[in-house]
């Protein structure tokens, strides 16, 4: 977890501070009596296009998920008219909500659902320009109760800080939030939405709120794995302050929006469930995949009556084991693989601090399969994936837990998919382990399935008569992609069965097809790269980086020297190539492209590097836009992968248009 050290230190420092208590805070001794984290839908994705019809449509869609626990239909801003009415009361926008809020609330209630909306603690709402509740807390609370509102998301926008001289954001928030909380009373869920980077709601939100945000509200979650990961990492630092009736809110579920894979969406739901977090959909309910957002076994963990969030049992930065105690004595365990390659993640009953027992029952919450173990717990977890178990000491006849690995990493910490070459036999392993160890298994059979047009052959036996407790069985395979296979990732799947594993256990992995450069010397711009990361837009071939659009660069030019061939990037950038251990030398001229220069100003700075299988092979140090091209020659002999890297010069990424001019590679 890349930001853990810094963030953890900040959390420790915050925890050491004294939380000031206003009189209002002292009177709000507890959050509303809401027994489990709210589940529902938010209109955030609709923005200020939200209207009566779209909310009714969402309610109809959410009704299909009601049995799973999804109940709250929440309008997230832009519902208000621009001004209060003649009586000083809030009013709905007459164009988009012509029937008013009361009629809409009644419609939602008629579906057996609950209704939520936002208010603002300041003078204006965050979006739409509607009036805030500052100075009107009692009146606005009375109005939404009159409408029958069940949930209020209380935003922190347009705060009149001049009314609070000498007070910081936290002190102001601790005065404003209790006012609305007390006015609403105990029957309405109260969601604090005020993490502005300074108000530290996790330190005091548990005293009055149903939920409190863990991520900065001005940087909401986006539908990407990187965004979800960063927000989860931050949330993990703050879960210690959550508990029954007051839950950490790491933002909305993204499943159904389309920016992540199903594996990544399952991971978000898993991690949110382990955190006892609200499960609020951002996608239209009809588009949210029920198999992911409404899995009853996973939702049951989120909604567990004990209300205690998970904590790390073990983590090393890429691979995480989380443990959450559940009502009745069971324990939820999540094995999360943050990395880009399948990885077997393991733990033990001792590490999880489970009650002493000779045998444990494990239920895989995503598949529903039941297993047993004497104490060892493991799973081959796909890249960006999460496996969840419910562990109990209840004894039954479940088969011993198997672990089935396809192409396990042979190098510690390897996070890149194995590369295979088209038209050639490539070797890989499968391994099945009797991890549970509660009994031997017999008649073990392992299969491997490759994409259409590929060939797979077991070089060593793929069946075993007996697998003792704790023992592993390995099969070596050759897989052969067709000669014309495109350079990209391809899935591999497989299954292991035995006398005890009659339904079988599925496995998966990803391999990357790539071709190493041919013998002799080649321009790298003529060689397909295996990976490419660029600060703005794509890396360009035989032209400068230009701006964000593809193909918008110019002739590569460094210090007035023009180059017909090379790579144009914008730092930070990284271009990776598969070399299969057959290449010897990489050479290029490094420098900042002249396209960023302006009259009277020479701009840009970057550090150019060459990496060979994780080892630094060459480095220029920081080059600036006023320096001539720097010749770089790096030995990459024996490396299977090389990377050309440009980092910014320690200032920022502005104008860091980096050229790997005349870049060539020499191979045997």
From TrEMBL:
It catalyses: Hydrolysis of terminal, non-reducing alpha-D-galactose residues in alpha-D-galactosides, including galactose oligosaccharides, galactomannans and galactolipids. Residues 518-667 form the Glycosyl hydrolase family 98 putative carbohydrate-binding module domain. InterPro entries: A-galactase_NEW3 (IPR018905), Aldolase_TIM (IPR013785), Galactose-bd-like_sf (IPR008979), GH (IPR017853), Glyco_hyd_98_carb-bd (IPR013222), Glyco_hydro_27 (IPR002241), Glyco_hydro_27/36_CS (IPR000111), Glyco_hydro_b (IPR013780). Keywords: Disulfide bond, Glycosidase, Hydrolase, Signal. Transmembrane segments: none annotated. One of its GO terms (molecular function) is alpha-galactosidase activity. It comes from the Bacteria. The keyword Hydrolase applies. Residues 1-24 form the signal peptide. Its EC number is 3.2.1.22. One of its GO terms (biological process) is carbohydrate metabolic process. Belongs to the glycosyl hydrolase 27 family. This is Alpha-galactosidase.
